[in-house]
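Morning F.,

Quick status update on the modeling queue. The single chain you submitted on Monday has been processed. Sequence for confirmation:
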Amino acid sequence: MKLFTSIVASVLSICCGLVFIVSSVSKWPVLESFGWTIVENTWLNWTAAEWLARILVGAEFLIGVFFVAHIAVRKLAIPLSLLLLAVFSIYLIAVYRLYGAAGNCGCFGEWIPMTPLQSLVKNAILMALIFGVYFLKDYSFHFPYKRWVIVTLTLLCLLIPFLVLPPESIYIVEKDKSLHQALPLSLLYTSPNNTAPKVELRKGKHVIALLSLSCHFCRKAARRMHIMKLKHPELPFYFVLNGDPARLNDFFSETKANNIPYTLFNGAEQFTRLNHGYSVPSIKWVEDTTLVRQPSYMSLQEDEILAWMHP
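Structure tokens below.
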């Protein structure tokens, strides 16, 4: 009977560990998006969210290794796993209350799409299995230098997500310079090949993003601006998009930036004149027809824009 109980406990532990490992590894390709989702659904700022996303993914991997390797199961793996599942479940409940049951919660990245409700059920089942492991038997391995192995594994697992995709906040970003340059916004309204914006961008304060539909970093900028606009609908964002119109659906599907008005503006020469160059994404703070500031998408901060709008 004891042998049977040990085998069942060992199998359950390995199954639980594999779930945590798969959940962690599946988030690595979309680690940046996971951080954005945290910003979108919590009060955390961009820097805190991107660091927390990597710590959570590393913690998932660490817990999975402990369960699979039968190391410190009762002392560390079980309490940490239950705490992490409780945190994720509270987060999923908040997402469900805000956005309903539709969409992929990202618990298994893009590998296994799950709605918030499906993921809550998954968490409940996983917690039941973990309690089963706890009550069956303590079968953790004991060996020399076990404490050092645990410390080493903890450091390695927590560092992996930071090595796979370092957070953008570790990079030094130059402070935006104050500018005072004329911007030929009339090109948007006089081009014979493009539809003029319905918004009058030549008057007042606007943050205009010139983006290419095929540019990966432009999509990152658009997603960041979408989240800012969700939290602060008063932000005067506007997109000027360049590229094949057939890419529009894919662009907005990835960036979710349907809450920001846009103009499709094609014509390489005119787009370059409007952009003051070829580099995209190009984000411009504009007052009337004057370019005031030109931050990168990484240095774009909503509190600075709000302060500029209402000095």
